[in-house]
Amino acid sequence: MPETSLPIWEIHSQIIDSLRSGNRLILSAPTGSGKTTQLARLQDALSARGLDVIATREPGGSPIGERIRAILLDSRTSGLSYSAELALMFADRAQHLDELIEPALRSGKIVLCDRYTDSTEAYQGFGRELGSGVVLNLHRDLCHDLWPDLTLLLESDVKASIRRARNRNENVDSSEGRFEAENEAFFRRVERGFHEIAKRETGRVVRISPGSIQSVQQAIAKIVDRRFPQIASVKASTVALTPRAKPQPDRRVRRGSRAGSRRQKIPRAGQPARS
Predict the structure, then answer these.
(1) Is the pLDDT of residue 11 over 60?
(2) Are residues 94 and 143 in contact, defined by beta-carbon separation less than 8 angstroms?
(3) The domain spanning residue 168 has which CATH number?
(4) Partner of 124 for a Cys bridge, out of 86, 107, 137, 206, CB 3.0 to 4.6 A?
């Protein structure tokens, strides 16, 4: 995608002009909110419509990004300054954009991403108290000011989310517990950051209330179909093009017809009819 400093709503309209130019949807939320589960379900639903969808994540999403992720999330990482943490987040994102996201968008794919710059603003800008300005400036300079068409913000209770995230890491024996080790005050600042972003970016960010996995999935599906008529129309076309069941032959014998004197043999499927 070319570099641009256009306002976000103009970038938005350019990217979603047609499916050929690709769509980018982001799921952002505090840790433990279920966004990874919902991203996988959304990918399955869109793929079932025959759409070309890729799902990725940040940090990570590329071989280099995965190595950066290990530094950022590993609970054994110590002594990393907040500024260095922010720089690594954007090193990962710049590589991710150049290697995966922008080529995918140019080829017309729909890109689903687990976290993007909004998460960096919430975690590093608000959580680490580095401020929004430095985050947004780095995004403009390193990420071509490319923003998603739609960001879905999954809201959740802070204490419950932290508890789920910590339990998840223990159950899968994961070493990615560096952020989960932060105190509640940190996550309260992160939550406030997400809320501030949602209030500022009303044209892009849609907040989704907590609920069951199924209810959140249904809410996401409705939002995506409403925001992207192209995607919704693919669903309608798929239904319309579904072959109807073949009518069953009428085996009743009518009086006065040839069938009344001699029953015709109905060929089996794949067997040519006799003349």
Answers:
(1) no
(2) yes
(3) 3.40.50.300
(4) 86
